[in-house]
Amino acid sequence: MFFLILSLVALDPRYHTYQRMMQEIDSLALLHTEIARVETVGVTAVNQLPIIAVKISDNPQMDEDEPALLFVGVHHAEEVLGCEVCIYTIEHLLEGYDNDSLTTRLVDNLELWFIPILNVDGHGIVTSGIDTTWRKNLRDNNDNGIFDPGYDGVDLNRNYGFNWEYGGSNDPSSEYYKGPAPFSESETQVIRDLAQRERFLMAIDFHSARTGQGEVIYYPWRWGANFCIDYPFIRSIADSLAESILNDAGTGCYTAIYGVATEGNFRNWLYATLGTYAYTVEISWGCTPPGYRVDDICQRVLDGLNVFMQRATGPGVTIYVVDSISLLPLEAEVRVQNYYDPSLPPRTSDPVFGVFRKLLTPGVYSFEIMKDGYETTFVGNVNVVDTPVSVIVKMKPQSGVTEERHGRLMQVIPDYSSGVINFVAKVNESGNCTLQVFDSSGRLVTDVTRVSFADDRYVWHVPKNFSNGVYFAVFSKSGRTTCKRFLWLRSP
Ligand SMILES: [Zn+2]
Known about the structure:
The chain has helices at about 1-10, 20-30, 80-95, 100-110, 120-125, 185-200, 230-245, 265-275, 295-310, 405; strands spanning about 35-45, 50-55, 70-75, 110-115, 200-205, 215-225, 225, 255-260, 275-280, 315-325, 335, 355-360, 365-370, 375-385, 390-395, 410-415, 420-425, 430-440, 450-455, 455-460, 470-475, 480-490. It is α+β, with helices and mostly antiparallel strands.
């Protein structure tokens, strides 16, 4: 009897299992190494399975100065269509590159990140037929070492650390259990860490509601009576995305609706914390339409994604902030006049390129750029039309601030032939200081402390087993700290 029930509820084989997704992504990436890279961005909480991300861009091994976009499937285990849309879109991009002009332009100018299955543990419960309606991850809420479908698991899309306290349920047996603390789950930590590293301009998480409304796009946000400060920009992008996805019935398109701010979800956290324009796409109606319909559903969502991805290079600004003397990039706060909300964290240029990107609607805008130790700079009358306007802002050190204050910036110069990294401190920084190198997951990989910079330079002999990737060098002296991101890419 038990097996009979299982076979009745088993998922249509059109839907990918985790293992099949991994195989297909790996072989696709191998066929297209010039534009695709697979990265393990974390492991799941219970089964310790790798969560993978695919980066699609020209020069995928490098962090280039290009807008980054993130697409995530399967926060909710049973909403398996999100994985299918990700795989379908990845295939389309990889196979269309050099064949189709729009795809080539998107891949050349953007960094496109996909996580087809975030909730790998929960997805396994669904695809194995144990419970095709399972939603949460597999956190062992009562710590008894076995899976209790009536009590275990966290709703990952209520576990993010913005307004976590207002949303979801505190009851572990609820389908909406938000977890014991914000970001308590390794799966949501994956998104948090990747987003803080890549600073996505826009993002989408794909859902397909088992109950509730389908064919809808939610955007941030309405909080009480107020829309978020970027409402006109965010709303216009939601509308253009919704209008370019034909509904299943063929009678119209998807609908864009505001979401509430008082819920610790992906969309709200990304927007609140990093200013990412983040959207939830509820694909189709119900979780698992019959397999023969999946390609058609994915193609119609892809029509919308093509419009969405193109929008990243549409109306907006790209502001480069540099020190007026050294011309080194600066991480500075950028405020768009009339679109500034003091209750949200500051929006800043990124420390690697000094770049601040923001999508706007056509019009005339003014900006205020500020940083400790520098004179606040105003940039007025920027006329935004149909592509991002580039502005270079050279910030003047405040009078009375000596060169020494700006001397703490550090250069990281890898020398692959000698197998060393030169850490070069700027003016007046020789002498004892602390240098630490962390990998992209925040793990300390050197214990080089209290080094002496002879001639303002410290030469680090890189261990043989040091793997290629992105690292962070943290340099501190007299209580002041500088963090530099760098890439180590030694050929084997
Ligand atoms: Zn969902």
